[in-house]
Amino acid sequence: MDAVTEEGTDRDYVASLARGLSVIRAFRRDRPSMTLSEIARAADMNRAAARRLLITLVREGYAETDGKYFRLRPRILELGFSALSSLSFAEIAEPVMDDLSASLEETVLAAVLDGEWCVYVARSSSQRVVSVDLDVGSRLPAFAMSTGRVLLAALSDEELDRWLRDFRPIKYTEHTITSKSKLRADILRVREAGWSIVDEEYEIGFRSLSVPIRDQGGTVVAALNVCCPSPRVSLERMREEFLPEALAAAAEIERSLPEAYARRAPELRGRVHG
Questions:
Q1: pLDDT value for 268
Q2: Percentage of the chain lying above the pLDDT 70 cut
Q3: 274 within some domain
Q4: Residues 207, 238 contacting (CB under 8 angstroms)
Q5: How many structural domains compose the chain?
Q6: What is the predicted pLDDT for the residue at 181?
Q7: pLDDT per residue over 228-241, tens digit each?
Q8: Is 234 contained in some domain?
Q9: Which of 72, 98, 114 corresponds to the end of one domain?
Q10: Comparing C-alpha atoms, which of 97, 120, 118 is closest to residue 107?
Q11: CB distance 193 to 222 below 8 Å
């Protein structure tokens, strides 16, 4: 008898689609261009299977190749945008984010957790000459971002321990926390405090503040983020001026989330692994 899951039976499972998604997920910020062998190894499949899937992606306009290296094309973002637009989260959050950005004169973003990554799903930018170069659809390492710390703090202890066990730290700057024990301690501090500030851990010259956005049931579904150049905004100002406004903006977004949205929240939050 077929094994039955919440999603259906084994006969409902399309293995070729799953393999195609594995190929897409093999591309990351630190490896945007790879050879066929590298992709096959990253996606855990043989070269022949990877080649067929890559050729399909190239022909459909989602990838390109120079004959040796493959890379994803911007059209791949259509897949994510379709899902995000159907959730209407950005439509709800962006007016509030626009007001917050205008008030603070800094870039404001919202992100969700997808495995080891923060995926940015909404953005509002001030008219400052120096602003944060992040667009909707950008994926950054959760452990080194204030958005990531807020979203990881929302996991259960078991989920967090599993996440920490699987993740591999990268020292992006001299300030990056790479110790799993120190990272866990900071995430637990964020859980207790209800906010996170990360100072130049991913990029020198930038610091950010994030607070959680919860659905009507109290579950964290996204993180609201204010990011700015560190020479322009001190840590003290972030705590004393930016934090109260960010918390108020998150509360306003929460009040705007419809009841039906709460039932779809797990889709937006993403997966602990994947």
A1: 47
A2: 81
A3: no
A4: yes
A5: 2
A6: 94
A7: 888 889 999 999 99
A8: yes
A9: 72
A10: 97
A11: no
Q: Which pLDDT does position 128 carry in this prediction? A: 56
Q: Say yes or no: 229 and 246 in one domain.
A: yes
Within a 10 A sphere around the Cβ of 225, how many other Cβ atoms? 29
Tell me the sheet residues that pair with 222: 213
Q: Identify the domain containing residue 165 by its residue range.
A: 79-269
State mean pLDDT over 185-206.
Answer: 95
Tokens (6 digits) for 207: 């610091």
Which amino acid appears at position 45 of this protein?
A: M
User: Are 251 and 127 found together in one domain?
Assistant: yes
Q: Determine, yes or no, domain membership for 34.
A: yes
Own/partner pairs, 250-254, CB within 8 angstroms, 24+ separation: 250/211, 250/212, 250/213, 250/214, 250/224, 252/96, 253/92, 253/93, 253/96, 253/97, 253/213, 253/224, 254/213, 254/214, 254/215, 254/216
Output the CA angle 244-248-253, nearest 5 degrees.
150
Among 47, 72, 97, the domain boundary falls at 72
| Distance, CA of 245 to chain centre | 22
